[in-house]
Write a structure and sequence with these properties.
Largest sheet of chain A: 13 strands, mixed
Oligomer: heterodimer
Shape of chain B: globular
Number of domains of chain A: 4
Number of strands of chain B: 0
Shape of chain A: elongated
CATH superfamily of the largest domain in chain B: RNA polymerase sigma factor, region 2, helix turn helix motif
Largest interface: A-B, 49 and 55 residues
Order of helices and strands of chain B: HHHHHHHH
Distance between the termini of chain A: 105 Å
Structural class of chain B: mainly alpha
Strand content of chain A: 15-25%
Number of helices of chain A: 17
Number of helices of chain B: 8
Low-confidence stretches of chain B: none
Helix content of chain A: 25-40%
Mean pLDDT of chain B: 86
CATH topology of the largest domain in chain A: Rossmann fold
Radius of gyration of chain B: 18 Å
CATH superfamily of the largest domain in chain A: Domain of unknown function DUF4159
CATH class of the largest domain in chain B: Mainly Alpha
Largest sheet of chain B: none
CATH topology of the largest domain in chain B: Rna Polymerase Sigma Factor, Chain: A
Low-confidence stretches of chain A: 59-113, 218-232, 267-283, 285-297
CATH architecture of the largest domain in chain A: 3-Layer(aba) Sandwich
Number of domains of chain B: 2
CATH class of the largest domain in chain A: Alpha Beta
Distance between the termini of chain B: 30 Å
Chain lengths: ~725, ~170
């Protein structure tokens, strides 16, 4: 035979595990001595591996289609590939699971107590039973699957011909099921103790997740040698749909996450089961053992059992309503979001589900409330007041219109208008911190039913409490995305983006909690003496956007002016419209905000006249918001045509008016988002009218800094420098 | 790009070839998967030591070669299919013949799709259901030797098909 063909034949026999020891030795010699043979071996091995890859992918695709029906698969993670030998068996199992999914959908609305068979039949000693007990050894007839509700709220769906023992509260698990044969899908309720499925090969431990387990014999073959001996090996197949599970297989431990599946196959062996270790074998006792042993060493030789980690703090309460079909159609939404955050971000939080009446609305302890649903709803007057107080004191509420239901959306809008009549719900601007506080999510993809093609801005709307957004509402659901599923008729944000927005919501709610609670206690200074005749007064401009986001900021600045300078100050700032007659009585007006605004023709004319007559305007883009910045520049161009805002050089007398300000420290948000140096130069801008500085504008936030409270997302200056800049602006305006 | 993302990008790009290298030496699927997992962990752990001037695939395969040798050394009761020197020769061959994986996989998909029903079924038995040639022979009512030969012929045919398709694409490009 041709040498090259001979090498090829040996390589193929090696790949088919058919080489004799002599052939192996010959291949070894040839590969070691011939680069050409080694190259051929590498190419053939690559093709072999690619074929495995190609056909495994085909198999996986079939399984996923069968498993998920209309569910969107979890983000692909390739930590584990499905081992090939028992793929056929696993595929069968997963087809069964697909059928069981339908059953799950039909039974979501029923939540009986104890061990109960809620669908299908279960035989106990040959008799059909509806109610079961811990210790029951049950058989599912081979005609239909059975669905069990467990005392901890979990759900087990056992495939036809499965056999299992309900172990109850056992070995540290709140519920344990021993699967003797067959397969099951387990939806595990939230809880602090683990849930466990035990098999002879190994056990699967989970917390608040969803997974399938298949256990039973699969055919295998032994081809070593001339003949072929067919045997049966036990296999344990685990597929995780949501969350994470731990699989103890023999002495090894594996962690599988959503989307992972793995088959554990081996000969049946001891030591693979879970629970406490087996008792020691009875030992032969000799007479010498009657003598008392030597004293034990003072230090223990074994470590004590590990303590359970403390329960993570509850970051969010999901509000329960009367009907499961209303609030719980995405049963795993918030749980799945938190598990996802734990996996991705290593942040460990827990959640609770309660009716609103049972929630202690204490903003210092509970950062976030979550209300989702399909149906129309109303709050009572007391509930509205409690929710208002909760938000004003630093709490955060997220309303989610599940499946984009109009009835829920209309109710949420109506209720929010009643709870915060003075604060309209508005679309969050593109530079809102919620779109970038953890993940950058400027654009999202929507589900087909939403009718928004391509990437579009996120759908969130909100109500601002000062610089903070205290209520967020989404008319397109995020909850289905958190639950990792989509419906054809469901208008929502696709899972990948929903999860990122969810992480941002939680990050924002927790980061702004301290700010919200401390701002709720902020002091607003008032005048002891009401007489204002000789006092310096400031007017605050009311405009179309949110005009007073930092209610305590200006009065805190004025307090500093009063205490640090000889200027007599009136703490009562006067809100005024630019076209009001009061404008001419005030030497200094202040204008701030978050949003876009437009001045009317009369306002433009009045402001122009005011500035030309020697008035002074200070502008401040609250939180450094771009929308206000753009609007302020645009409107000032109308007020003073031909005159532009120009940066004030560091040599400008304003910077040495009271404090000598050579450099400033920017807030963390400014350093991160605007890539500003720390410390850096102040960035005030101004317009000269008739040779006098008449307008000073700060595109970076000053007002949040004046409040002397934490503002994690304020793009501006640190409080000390914001105050120093503010005092200098006031003193400059007074003295020029 | 952070370190983790950089690693993932490189690893995902080269994982098929690393898997192929391990598979060329270790034919038992479970052991193969375990080794691959170990190699992935070591690559991540030692990623700081990876020299970007070198090919990531070659670096990862080097780690895989060491892992395979260690595994064989531990399992002293089973004969080693190849000597350590041969493993090094195979490693060098993989380095010499390394190429972009994705066009090859695309070409393979097209070549498999072109196959008639019976050979495709044969490949599915072998690679999708992981049946041994003996079991395939039983199902197809054939002989083991015939299945060996058919598989060898099929692989040679696919290799040839991939080569032709890649050459065509190069000319087209």
């Amino acid at each position: 035979m041709d040498e090259r063909l001979h090498i090829q034949a040996l390589i193929h026999r090696h790949l088919d595990q058919a080489t004799t020891p002599e052939e192996s030795a010959e291949l070894d010699r040839l590969l070691g001595s011939s680069a050409e043979a080694a190259d051929a071996f590498a190419e053939a091995s690559r093709l072999d591996a690619f074929l495995v890859e190609h056909f495994s992918d085909t198999g996986r695709r079939l399984q996923v289609a069968a498993l998920f029906h209309d569910r969107q698969p979890a983000a692909p993670r390739r930590r584990w590939r499905l081992p090939v030998p028992v793929l056929a068996a696993a595929a069968g199992v997963l087809l069964i699971v697909g059928a069981l999914l339908l059953g799950r959908h039909l039974q979501k609305t029923r939540q009986p107590q104890g061990y109960q068979v809620v669908a299908g039949h279960v035989l106990l000693d040959g008799e059909a039973r509806r109610e079961l007990f811990a210790g029951a050894r049950l058989v599912v007839p081979d005609t239909a699957p059975a669905v069990l509700h467990l005392p901890d709220g979990s759900r087990a769906e056992l495939a036809p011909a499965s056999r299992a023992i309900l172990r109850g509260h056992s070995g540290g698990a709140r519920q344990a099921i021993e699967l003797l044969q067959g397969s099951g899908r387990f939806q595990v309720a939230k809880g602090t103790e683990p849930f466990r499925v035990e098999t002879l090969l190994g056990c699967v431990t989970a917390l608040g997740t969803e997974f399938t387990v298949d256990f039973g014999p699969v055919p295998s073959s032994d081809t070593g040698g001339v003949g072929m001996r067919r045997t049966a090996v036990q296999a344990l197949a685990v597929a995780v749909i949501l969350g994470m599970v731990q699989v103890d297989f023999g002495t090894d431990t594996f962690i599988l996450s959503a989307g992972d599946s793995k088959v554990f196959a081996a000969g049946v062996r001891d030591g693979g089961t879970c629970g406490p270790p087996p008792p020691p074998k009875p030992a032969q006792r000799s007479g010498a053992e009657g003598v008392p042993p030597l004293p034990l060493p003072a230090t223990p030789q074994r470590r004590t059992e590990k303590k359970k980690p403390p329960t993570p703090p509850a970051v969010v309460v999901k509000i329960k309503t009367g009907s499961l079909a209303d609030w719980a159609t995405d049963q795993n939404d918030i749980n799945n979001l938190l598990v996802w955050m734990q996996t991705k971000l290593k942040i460990n939080f827990s959640f609770e589900e309660k009716p609103l009446r049972e929630v202690k609305l204490d903003a210092s302890r509970l950062p976030m409330l979550y209300r989702t649903g399909h149906n129309a709803f109303t709050f009572s007057a007391a509930e509205r007041q409690a929710l208002r107080d909760y938000v004003l004191k630093g709490g955060f509420i997220y309303f989610d219109a599940c499946c984009g239901r109009k009835a829920f959306s209309d109710s949420a809008r109506a209720e929010l208008a009643k709870i915060f009549p003075e604060r309209p719900l508005r679309k969050l601007p593109p530079d809102h911190p919620l779109y970038r506080c953890y993940y950058d999510v400027p654009l999202v993809a929507y589900t087909p039913a939403a009718g928004i093609t391509g990437m579009a801005p996120p759908p969130l709307e909100g109500i601002d409490i000062g610089c903070r957004t205290g209520v967020v509402f989404s008319p397109y659901d995020l909850s289905c995305g958190w639950d990792m599923h989509t419906h054809k008729t469901c208008s929502g944000v696709q899972a990948e983006y929903a999860l990122k927005l969810g992480a941002n919501l939680i990050a924002y709610a927790t980061a702004t909690k301290a700010m919200g609670t401390s701002l709720a206690e902020s002091r607003v200074y008032t005048d002891r003496e009401k007489a204002r005749a000789d006092k310096f007064r400031i007017g605050q401009v009311m405009h179309g956007g949110q005009w007073n986001p930092d209610p305590a900021g200006l009065s805190t600045l004025l307090d500093t002016v009063s205490s640090q300078t000889s200027l007599k100050v009136s703490f009562a700032t006067q809100p005024l419209r630019l076209d009001s007659k009061d404008l001419t009585t005030l030497p200094f007006i202040y204008m701030t905000g978050h949003d876009d605004f437009t001045l009317s023709g009369a306002e433009v004319a009045a402001l122009r006249a005011y500035l030309r007559a020697g008035g002074f305007l200070m502008g401040d883009a609250c939180c450094g918001r771009k929308a206000f910045d753009t609007a302020f520049r645009r409107e000032m161009a109308k007020v003073l045509p031909g005159l532009k805002l120009k940066a004030l050089p560091t040599s400008h007398p304003l910077y040495s008016m009271h404090y000598k300000i050579a450099s400033v420290n920017h807030s963390q948000a400014a350093i991160v988002q605007r890539k500003l140096k720390n410390p850096g130069a102040p960035a005030l801008e101004g317009i000269l009218v008739n040779g006098q500085l008449a307008v000073v504008y700060s595109p970076l936030d000053l007002g949040c800094g004046w409040e002397l409270k934490p503002h994690p997302y304020g793009v501006g200056y640190e409080s000390r420098d914001a105050i120093r800049l503010g005092v200098n602006v006031v003193m400059y305006a007074v003295s020029h | 790009m952070d370190r983790q993302e950089h690693f993932l990008r490189l690893f995902l790009q080269h994982q098929a070839d690393v898997r192929a290298f391990i598979g060329s030496l270790v034919r038992e699927p479970q052991a193969r998967d375990d080794l691959f997992q170990e190699v992935a962990l070591v690559c991540w752990r030692d990623f700081a030591r990876y020299d970007p001037a070198r090919s990531f695939g070659a670096w990862a395969r080097g780690i895989a070669a060491n892992k395979v040798k260690q595994a064989w050394a531990k399992a002293s009761h089973t004969p080693m299919p190849f000597s350590p020197e041969t493993v090094d020769a195979i490693l060098a061959a993989f380095d010499r013949t390394a190429a972009d994986v994705s066009p090859r996989l695309d070409a393979l998909r097209e070549c498999v799709d072109e196959l008639p029903e019976r050979p495709r079924r044969l490949l599915a038995f072998r690679y999708q259901h992981a049946l041994s040639p003996a079991e395939i022979a039983r199902r197809l009512e054939s002989t083991r030797d015939a299945v060996y030969k058919a598989l060898a012929r099929l692989r040679a045919r696919l290799e040839d098909c991939i080569r032709r398709r890649l050459a065509l694409r190069e000319r087209g490009a």
